[in-house]
Amino acid sequence: MSSWFVWLLIVLFCIGGxxxxxxxxxxxxxxxxxxxxxxxxxxxxxxxxxxxxxxxILVGLAFAIAWAITRKASFSWIGQDVLYVKILxxxxxxxxxxxxxVATVLLCCAFVYDIFWVFLSPIIFHQSVMIAVAKGNNSGGxxxxxxxxxxxxxxxxGGYDMIGFGDILFPGLLVGFSLR
Length: 180
Description:
This protein has seven helices and two strands. Helix 1 (about 5-20) packs antiparallel against helix 3 (about 40-70) and helix 1 packs across helix 4. The protein is mainly α and about 180 residues long. A two-stranded antiparallel ribbon has the order 1-2. The longest helix has about 30 residues, at about 40-70. The radius of gyration is 20 Å and the shape is globular. It has one domain.
């Protein structure tokens, strides 16, 4: 995988982490309906919310840029996991599964996909393609940020435990379906 493609994914990951912050707040249109009787209160609350959204986007942008700059440091897994969890929470709220058959097919396909690329690809390609891509072995040392990383505290070599986006999102969509 080329390094420019990994950089594109890093930039999109940062943009997604910044943009997702504003979706967890109530929309301004919902608040306008509540305060429609008094225009002064409506105007001041609307201006406050616009300012709050602007500050929130600046804080998210600063956080994403700080993570992108320090992404190779030993503590960068914290920032990556924060951005990742925000994107996962938004995705699980935005995407809805309407049929249990769709959830079953998605989970079965994800299971077969993971088994092939982690365990069967070393037989064909002489290395696990999924692990090589996640670690950035073939892209100049740049790794794809679309996974949760946790350091192994007892590992003398400083390795990480990793779990991918789909391994959390697809079961989360099924849980969301079962809660509705």
